[in-house]
Design goal:
With 234 residues, the chain is α+β, with helices and mostly antiparallel strands. The chain has a domain at 82-125 and 167-209: Beta-clip-like (Beta Complex). 23% of the residues lie in helices and 21% in strands. The longest helix is centred in the first third of the chain and has 15 residues, at 64-78. GO terms for molecular function: histone H3K4 methyltransferase activity; RNA binding.
């Protein structure tokens, strides 16, 4: 126990050299202030300072990460990209919905939680196909006995087919006086269809929107039962 401590050696740069070859085996020891300053000055010389125009003065209790987060948030909202923020929130916190029998037609989608006005309810998910493929699939679905149409037009060239690859959004029924509406938004240069709430939606209330089918000679009857019902979907 009375072993003599080895003499502390210093390297050419002034820093202490570990006699045993490992810092952990030598226990705790104090470093002179002069050595600390010398080390700090050397490390600062190699560090790259940010340009003067990107330096931000932070107040007490602020961190660069929080400042950058607030800057990005303000830039999103300032550039009218609130839809993108809402879409990200919808992905991480999906609305509680369920599908069950509807008094309008067959199956319907119902809210299991209160939904405020102008909120994203659900994304219309399916396969992105072209108009030519959509016409071929529509004839094939008729031959297979699938009477309901689950195709949603995004633009002139793109259609979302949710017949065999979709989510609960395909169960939403049409209404001439709907509580929701569909909107096309762009996320990472890709167009998506999202169902928004027009008004406050209560628990167990059915979610509906206007299909806005084009006018055709062969009429499809509307069964929404609202006061201003047009009588047909198209």
């Amino acid at each position: 126990t009375s072993l003599s401590t080895p003499k502390k050696k210093k390297r050419d740069d002034g820093m202490r050299e570990h006699v045993t070859g490992c810092a952990r085996s030598e226990g705790y020891y104090k470093i002179d202030k002069k050595d600390k300053l010398k080390y700090l000055n050397n490390s600062r010389a190699f560090a790259e300072e940010p340009p003067a125009d990107t330096q931000v003065r932070l107040g007490p209790g602020c961190s660069p990460w929080r400042s950058e987060q607030r800057r990005l948030l303000s830039s999103f909202t300032g550039s009218c990209d609130s839809d993108l923020l809402k879409f990200n929130q919808l992905k991480f916190r999906k609305k509680k919905l369920k599908f069950c029998k509807s008094h309008i037609h067959d199956w319907g989608l119902f809210a299991m939680e209160p939904i405020a006005a102008d909120e994203m309810v659900i994304e219309y998910v399916g396969q992105n196909i072209r108009q030519v493929i959509a016409d071929m699939r529509e004839k094939r679905y008729e031959d297979e006995g699938i009477g309901s149409s689950y195709m949603f037009r995004v633009d002139h060239d793109t259609i979302i087919d949710a017949t065999k690859c979709g989510n609960f959004a395909r169960f939403i029924n049409h209404s001439c006086n709907p509580n929701c509406y569909a909107k096309v938004i762009t996320v990472e240069s890709q167009k998506k269809i999202v169902i928004y709430s027009k008004q406050h939606i209560n628990v167990n209330e059915e979610i509906t929107y206007d299909y806005k089918f084009p006018i055709e000679d062969v009429k499809i009857p509307c069964l929404c039962g609202s006061e201003n019902c047009r009588g047909t979907l198209n």
